[in-house]
Each structure stands twice: as C-alpha cells, then as structure tokens.
Amino acid sequence: MTVADRNGNIIPQNELTMVPDISVNLVKAWSMQESHAGTKGSILQVNNNGDFTPDKTAIGITKGATFSANMEIGLAISYAIGKGFTSTPNYAADKSGKIESRNWTWNGWEKAIKGYNGGGVKKYGEYVMQMLNESSKPKPQNYNK
Amino acid sequence: MRTIFTTLAIALLNFYTWGDKQTIDSFNKHLIENGKKGKLLKQPQGMDELYQGKYLGQITAKKRTYHIVAFTRIFNLKNSPTAESHIFLYDKSLNYMGNYYLTLIDELPSYIIGQKLYFLNTICDRHLIVDFKKGIPPAINLKCNGENAYYEFHK
Q: Closest-CA residue in chain B for A105?
C-alpha cells in the first residue's frame, strides 16, 4: 500500500504498521456520511472535481478518473491514512532549513476520517463516530417490509 | 502507444492543475489588490464549488515582503462538502511563492501583527503564533491539544 502525507511525501512502509485495521462498521458509517452508502454517488466520494492535491496524486488518484466501489474504498482508506499521520521534520545540521528526514506519528482513525473531509462539513468526524457508536447488529425483522 | 497515452494523460493532468492554479491565483490576487484585509470573501465556482479567502496582510522580514492569504476551496457541495485549506504566500509583485497545505479549515490563521501570524483555533487548548522574522519557515507546527501538526512549505 502506498500512502502519502499532505505534502506528497510517501510514508515509509514500516511506519504504516502503526495503523490498526479499520473496522468494517467505521467504513459503513463513513460511507453513509459521504454518499448514503453509495446511493448519492460514488461510495466515498474520493475523486471529485475540484479536489487535486499532492497527497492524492502520490497514491495514484488522478483527477476525473472513476473507480469501482471496491477500488475506491481502498484508495479512500489510503488517502485517509495520510491525513491521520503527522510528520515531524528533522532539519539539516547546516541550518539551511532543509528537511532531511521525517518522524511519523499515527493519530488514530477518528483524526484520519475528520481530516479526509477537511472541515467542509462541521462536526463531520462526530457524525461518523456517532453512527459507528449507535450501530447495532441487524435482526431478521429489520429485513421485513 | 503506451508512451503516447502516458504523455497525453500527463498533459491533461497538467492542464487541469494549471487551470485550477490560475483561478485560485486570480482569486487571491483580487483579495490582495483590493486591500480587503481581514474580510472573508466567498466566490462560487459553478454549482458545486466555492472559494473563500481572507487577505491577512503583509509581513516584511529579512528585507522581503510577503502577502498572506488564508484560502479554502470547498468542493462537492451537493453531496458531501469537502474543504481543502491553504495559507498562500505572494511576493511584493504578487508572484506566487508557495503555500502551506493544511488538513482542516479551523487551522487557518486569523490575523497578522508585525512579523507574526496568529492562529486562533477554538477547538485547541491554546492560540498559536508563528514568527516569520527569520523568513518563511520550512515547516510550521500547528500543535493542538498536545498533538503536533507539522505543515511544510510547498513551492
């Protein structure tokens, strides 16, 4: 998996081991927030017009491209992981201000999902987490009409 | 055949990027030229996108002057409004110098005093100040509630 931070820097593979698996229910809640689970457009709205940033291009999302729901979920997760990381720069000793390397910190899925939206919807992260926390296992009667 | 296709794809990609960059540049320059300091201006871009920006003023440090604009592009307005926020820097002649690409709209700076940029993020435990007296910082840390958030300057 390739993941980039918001500057387009590729996050090293060994750092990605800090990221726990995303829960299926979180993906469901997230897709409800983005597209009512795919009923209002592509499932996680990962590649909309107007959105074209180094962290997207670095992971292979090109503007205008369309993806299957399966591919889109994978790409959206990669993109969100980049939002959940903080990179702390290490500067060159010569005081030139050049960044020589970076230390990476994973801040959790809640931060990642919130960063995915960027604040376009106020309380976006809270809405997703609320749906996740209030989700329940379906019962047979939920499928009766 | 593959090479031709790749070249065409890259050209198309650059066209899109350049098109976007030009529109954003014009919007920001309009803010600076009209001296609408501290005023939030919103401008729809078609039916599904909006630019909003605030010219914060200028900072002079190390004999150079920078105009600073807090900018957000909100897209996908119909389905799931998504924000992309930047701090844009322009030189005295309004040439683009670079930007800090932020994660959240709340992280944008509020105002300038002297050579300092003030960030009043209400969800954080304290306000932040970034000092430009040594020039443009290669990275800024918008630490919030004890958590670092470094943003690198992107030319």
A: B148
Neighbour-count burial of B132, counting CB atoms closer than 10 A to its CB (0-12 exposed, 13-18 middle, 19+ buried): buried
| Mutation choice for B interface testing from A45, A52, A83, A107 by most B CBs within 10 A | A52
Which pLDDT does position B6 carry in this prediction?
45
What was the pLDDT predicted at A8?
A: 83
> Structure pTM?
0.89
The answer to whether the Cβ–Cβ distance between A41 and B103 falls below 8 Å is no
Residues of B within 8 A of A89 (CB-CB) are: 138-139, 150, 152
- From B152's Cα to the closest Cα of chain A, the distance in A is 7
Give me the sheet containing B116-119, strands edge to edge.
B111-113, B116-119, B128-131
Q: Rounded to the nearest 10 degrees, how much is the dihedral formed by the CA atoms of B69, B72, B73, B77?
A: -150
pLDDT confidence of residue A58 = 83
CA dihedral B9, B12, B14, B15 (to 10 degrees): 180
- pLDDT tens for each residue of A81-140: 999 999 999 999 998 888 999 999 999 999 999 999 999 999 999 999 999 999 998 888
| Contacts with B68 (C-beta within 8 Å, 6 or more apart), sequence order | B55, B56, B57, B58, B59, B87, B88, B89, B109, B112, B117
Q: Name the residue among A7, A52, A121 with its Cβ closest to that of B81.
A: A121
CB contact (8 A) between residue B150 and residue A48: no
C-alpha pair distances (Å), B127 with each of A94, A141, B45, B141:
31, 52, 32, 12
